[in-house]
Amino acid sequence: MPCPCCQPPESGDYEGMFDTEWANREADAYIDHGLEARAERLIAFLIENCTGPLRVLDVGSGAGGVHHELLRRGLAASVVAVEASSAYISAARMISERLGQDSQVEYLHGDFATAADGIDSADAVILDRVICCYPHLNQLLGASASKAERYLALSYPRERWWVRIAFGLFNVYLKLKRKDFRTFVHPHREVHAIAGRDGLEPVHAETEGFWQITVFERV
Ligand SMILES: C[S@@+](CC[C@H](N)C(=O)[O-])C[C@H]1O[C@@H](n2cnc3c(N)ncnc32)[C@H](O)[C@@H]1O
To answer: How many A from CA of 124 to the centre of ligand 1?
Structure first.
C-alpha cells in the first residue's frame, strides 16, 4: 500500500470518461483502420532502432493498439497493460483474444501512479496520450520512468498556443457536461526533467498534429 500522504488526490473519473461506448468505438477504429498516425510514429522508432524481444509496460493502454501492434510485429514478447478504465481493459482483452495474443498480455486495472510499487519494470515503458489525462505529472511520469530499463516512449500535447486552446475548449466542454475529468498540457521542461532525473536521455523527438512524441533511453 502506498503511503496515504504520498497518494495523489482525486485524479479524474476515468471509468465515467472512458466508458464502454467510448472504448468500443476506439477498439472498432483500431480493428478497421489500424493505429492512428501518432501511435504509429510512437512505435516506429522502437521498431526501427531496438532489438527485441522486449518486455513492454503499456501505461494507460486504452484499447491497446500500441501493444497489439508491438506483439503482432514481433518486437514485444510480453506486455503488462495498466489501465484506469475497466471498459478499456475489456475492449483491449477482446482484441488480444481475437489476435491470439492473450497469453502474452497481462491486464491490470488501476491507477499506475499509486500501484507502480507492485508492478515489475520492463524494457520499454509506453504512455501514449496518457500524461495529458493525469494532473500529477511527477507521480505518474516519475513512476513510469523508474520502471523503464531501456526505453520510455511518450506522446503528449505540444506546447503550442493552438494546442492549448483546443485542450482548454475541451475542458470547458467537460465542465459543461459535468464530467469529473480534465486534460492537461504539462510543461515539456518538466517531462524532460523527470525523465532525466531517472537517468533517461531523449534519443528521438518528432511531432504529429497536436502531439509531441519523445523517446528516452537509459544511459
Ligand atoms: C486518452 S486515453 C489514451 C489511451 C491509449 N493510450 C491511446 O492512446 O489510445 C488515456 C488513458 O490513460 C488512462 N490513464 C490516465 N492516467 C492513468 C493512470 N494514472 N493509470 C492508469 N491509466 C491511466 C485513462 O484511463 C485513459 O484510458
So the answer is: 17
Contacts of 59 (CB under 8 A, 6+ apart): 82, 112, 125, 126, 127, 130, 140, 144
Q: CB–CB of 186/132 below 8 Å?
A: yes
Nearest to 142 by CA among 177, 105, 182, 186: 186
Answer yes or no: are the C-beta atoms of 47 and 154 closer than 8 Å: no
5 within some domain:
no
Q: Is residue 139 part of a domain?
A: yes
What residue's CA is closest to ligand 1, atom 11? 60
- The CATH code of the domain that includes 205 is 3.40.50.150
Angle, vertex CA 147, rays to CA 129 and CA 26, nearest 5: 25
> To test the ligand 1 pocket, which listed residue (57, 83, 130) has its Cβ within 8 A of the most ligand atoms?
130
**Does the residue 91 lie in any domain?**
yes
| Mean pLDDT to the nearest integer, 99-124 | 97
pTM (predicted TM-score): 0.95
Work out the pLDDT band at 10, boundaries 50, 70, 90.
low
Distance from Cα 136 to the centre of ligand 1, integer Å: 13
Tell me, what's the pLDDT at 160?
Answer: 98
Q: 140: domain range? A: 14-218
Ligand 1 centroid vs 35 CA: distance in angstroms?
A: 16
Is 8 part of a structural domain of the chain? no
The count of structural domains within the chain is 1
The rounded distance, in Å, linking the Cα atoms of 137 and 149 is 20
pLDDT value of position 5: 42
